[in-house]
Amino acid sequence: MAWGCTIALLSQNPIIRDQFTADPTARVFNGRMYVYPSHDILAEEGKGRPGWFCMEDYHVFSSDNLTQWIDHGVIVSQNDVLWGDSTSYSMWAPDCVERNGKYYFYFPANNRVVDATGRKGFSIGVAIADHPEGPFVPQSEPIQNVRGIDPNVFIDKDGQAYLYWSMQNIYVAKLKDNMLELDSEPLIIANLPDKGLKEGPFVFERNGLYYLTFPHVENNIERLEYAIGKHPMGPFEMTGVIMDESPLNCWTNHQSIVHYNHQWYLFYHQNEYSPNFDKNRSICIDSLFFNADGTIRKVLPSRR
Ligand code: FUB
Prior knowledge:
- GO terms for molecular function: carbohydrate binding; hydrolase activity, hydrolyzing O-glycosyl compounds.
- This is Carbohydrate binding protein with CBM6 domain.
- With 304 residues, the protein is mostly beta strands.
- 3% of the residues lie in helices and 42% in strands.
- It has 1 helix and 19 strands.
- The chain has one helix at residues 2-10; strands at residues 22-29, 32-38, 57-63, 70-77, 95-99, 102-110, 122-129, 137-138, 149-155, 161-167, 169-175, 187-188, 202-206, 209-218, 221-229, 236-243, 256-260, 263-270, 282-288.
- β3 (57-63) and β4 (70-77) form a beta hairpin.
- Mean pLDDT is 93; it is low at 1-11.
- Beta-L-arabinofuranose binds at residues 22-23, 38, 53, 92-93, 149-150, 199-200, 252, 254.
């Protein structure tokens, strides 16, 4: 039976076939799986930077069987973000969480304001909805005191929410109950690999252990790695690799891990539909398993 299930998933990847999607954050809301990915498009002269990532908006997808996915359409576009630079096409990896019946969608975008280094750096915005598929209304200002990409929010059992993000290193801070402001100074998470870019944090809890998962770039490949701690702010101890580099030579990868209908799943991306241009990516799912000691068994990406 388990083998049959694996075959069923093997036949699914990539799961979205009519557009490019990347950086999938999967969440279970009201018994249904929702995926909030980035939306890769091809940059053209005057619209993004040719040869680089180009993202103008976000869609959300949902499914109750991980096989048939509904595209709920655009939930946030760069034109809706008052504080953002609407010419930058940099709507990178997002997240969405539920709190007290509201859905908070976190996304990075280039700020229209030049920062202290003279650049239009990345800030993190929040858009709020009453339903997981929207409509989402972006806040007029980004989260203060945060510069970076790849926001991830983890809400612990005691109700405390934490915001994680990346800017070479991985940062964490507490969020206030309003989910819109930091409630502590940003901390760089220690004990992660010294060398190489660390991005895409995604934190989850299982059996009292907190798993900080992240893609780690070294020598132009990106591995999905993880560290385990006993508190959402650490300390964390590097533990292992979840997925080795893409067999298709996709430079990036980006993960979320979620429990649904008695099974853990890894969501990630690769460039199966665009083998010659790895900035046009496609999201995939594979089952994920734990060892008895809580460590994660490495996942081999399945193909169609
Ligand atoms: O999709 C743009 C960037 O590539 C993401 O923000 C990173 O995590 C990497 O996947």
